[in-house]
Amino acid sequence: MDEEGRMFWINGPETFCYLSEQRQWRTGLSFQDVLEWKQCAPSGLVSQRFKSVQAACEAFEHNQVLWSHDLYLRRMGDQMALHRSASDYRPTAIKLAEASGRSVRPAPWIGEAPACLSCPIPSMAEGDHPTAEVADDLLHPRRRRRSLKEPVH
Question: What own/partner pairs with CB < 8 Å and gap ≥ 24 does 123-126 have?
Fold first, then answer.
């Protein structure tokens, strides 16, 4: 990771490796969670090839990397991000561990679920239909309205 928090991978064989920038789409995850839950993907920004991992690290530390854009890698990263950003995403390694008997762990980006969701609805006799006034009261309080009944000043 650099001083701005950007993440980079070293890719390829040790004697012909390159750096690639990784983008993240979730905030608040630890570095370990990002790796374990595969919450990053290539941005398409890649370096030149290096003769060794050490040479790649030294070039990075001394700001001597020549960066270019790999459009194929960018598109692949877009697809990975789309797939992995689903709220119910579970990496294969975690699925296999759970299938072999390990306990199921919640994804780190999913907070505590409320014990019971409720939306109070006034009781009505069976067959009754709400009046327009009551129907307005039944709208969910967090629902966005498409139009305003009164102009905004």
Answer: none
